[in-house]
Design goal:
This protein is an alpha+beta fold. It has a single domain, classed as Alpha-D-Glucose-1,6-Bisphosphate, Chain A, domain 4. The strands form 2 sheets. Strands 3, 4, 5, 6, 7 and 8 form a 6-stranded antiparallel β-sheet that branches. Strands 1-2 form a two-stranded antiparallel sheet. A hairpin with a 2-residue loop joins strand 7 and strand 8. About 10% of the residues have low confidence. Keywords: Signal.
Length: about 160
């Protein structure tokens, strides 16, 4: 009975954490922090390595600080889009994903380093889609929502794999 209650508690805690979303701001994505039970922290780290190997099969190797951090630089086709004059424009990104494991939680960092139109590097940065007050520019609302969708899908994939959901 006690085991069932503990499992129910952990399931509830993880489900609540899974509902967190990464939010795009003019400075990039806010980090996502997820609590990890102390007795399974090493298993979460190991599962995260396995997830990276599977999710990034065609990418270069990830960097690892044993038990503390995983980092990879990768590309994502059709990462976001925006519409202008009836046309939809899709963009590819090069990004850096870092997962840090510290004090009973892991932190998921996502940084967009480069933006491409198909295979051509643009000079555009994430901040260019925002006003000086931090709000998204009117013509680029789709950029924010579509990029958040893409990044949250990656974060959700990691979370589901790591916790076996």
């Amino acid at each position: 009975m006690r085991t069932k209650i503990l499992l129910l508690f952990f399931f509830y805690a993880f489900t609540a954490a899974a509902q967190q979303k990464m939010v795009l701001t003019a400075k990039g994505f806010e980090p996502l922090k997820v609590e990890v039970p102390q007795n399974s922290a090493f298993q979460i780290f190991t599962n995260s390595k396995d997830w990276m190997r599977g999710y990034y099969q065609t990418e270069t190797e990830f960097q690892e600080i044993e038990g503390q951090q995983l980092t990879i630089d990768a590309f994502k086709n059709n990462a976001f889009f925006f519409r202008s004059l009836g046309e939809t424009y899709y963009y590819k990104i090069k990004y850096n994903l870092k997962i840090e494991f510290v004090d009973g939680l892991y932190t998921f960092y996502f940084r967009v380093d480069e933006i491409y139109t198909i295979n051509t590097l643009t000079k555009t940065q994430i901040a260019d889609y925002f006003l000086s007050n931090g709000n998204i520019k009117d013509d680029y609302a789709d950029v924010k929502s579509s990029l958040e969708y893409t990044v949250n899908a990656i974060a959700r994939s990691h979370y589901n794999y790591v916790f076996g959901i």
